[in-house]
Amino acid sequence: MNNQTSNHHDLEFHAAYEHGHYRIDEREVITRLWQTVVAQQPSAQALTKGYRWRSTTYATQRIGGDVVLIEHPWLLLADISGHDLTAAMLGCMLVAASRLALHHGDVVSTLEHALHHDLERTGRFCTLFAARFTPEGLLEYINLGHPPALVYRHQTNSFEKLEASAPPLGVGRGQRQSPQRTQLLPGDQLIVYSDGITEAQHPQMHDRFFGERGLIHAIQGSENLDTTLANIHNALEPWIVRDDVTVAVIQRT
Amino acid sequence: VDIRVSKTVARDETRIALHGRFDAHEIEHFNQVTQAIYNHLCLDLDGVPFIDSSGLSALVALYRQCGQRGLRLRIVRLQDPVWLILEITRLLPVLPIEQDTEYLHTQGTLV
Q1: pLDDT in tens, A204-216
Q2: A148 and chain B: CB distance < 8 Å anywhere?
Q3: CA distance A143 to A167
Q4: I want to staple A80 with a disulfide (CB 3.0 to 4.6 A). Which of A65, A212, B24, B65 is the partner?
Q5: Is A167 in contact with B49 (Cβ distance < 8 A)?
């Protein structure tokens, strides 16, 4: 009887151990996959001739929902809702689908075709800003539910907001509009960011957020993309960041 | 977020009132509460000063689920910061946001 009980407990223990063990391994596998496919995008990837770019990402957990991708002549920054394993796996799918979409140029319809149903079925959506740069300074962009990207014109110390024209991917399929355009002059910078920045909370007054105003204030006066990134980083430092933060800055040289 | 559930008989709907930040940490609780209700829903966001993208996607998913179950969803009493986020993300025309005139009448604050 004692042996039987002991064997029974052993079996239960092994089943539980193996179950737990595999769960841990699966999580680790997905995390590593996300870190390889999404987080470790080549930082030296060339954009269009006549532009410099840099990006920085800070994930609040080991995995996140932000994606930055350079596929000449395109830059894409996307944010999948959530920062869990589902967001990480959808992020991997987004990178693969985006490479194809950017390569073929028909970004919105390709991404919708590839991802809409999976986003919908998992109860997620994906905000997205994609921009194409020409050597002559023409910037063509698509903004699907993403925070407005900013064009900072240092010569006039002025900002242009590139706002969303349609809801995020995974919501309201087929409501898309044509890409929009603006012109970048030499020295102008495009700042694309995820909502983790604007939603950063004041350390004392919790109903105050860094906001677009904080971002604009940090960028003003920055002569190049390196100082822009440093100024944003410094301005954000005392604030409480609760979501993934990604910033990409592109400057026409 | 503190989720309060109360039933409004007049419109044959269950009113769910949320209080506090509605972000990624609250989604599981929110989904548990909403999935257990088999009635028309009125989501009262008067107590929500902030919503992040996880909260927004939970609203979109709830709206979709209600449609699949043949239930009506109304989202009412949005604070300005929440309204602004819905505007920025272009989700305002997608979600069933209504002015809750009936509630305002009962509160005596309709102007």
Answers
A1: 987 889 999 999 9
A2: yes
A3: 9
A4: A65
A5: no
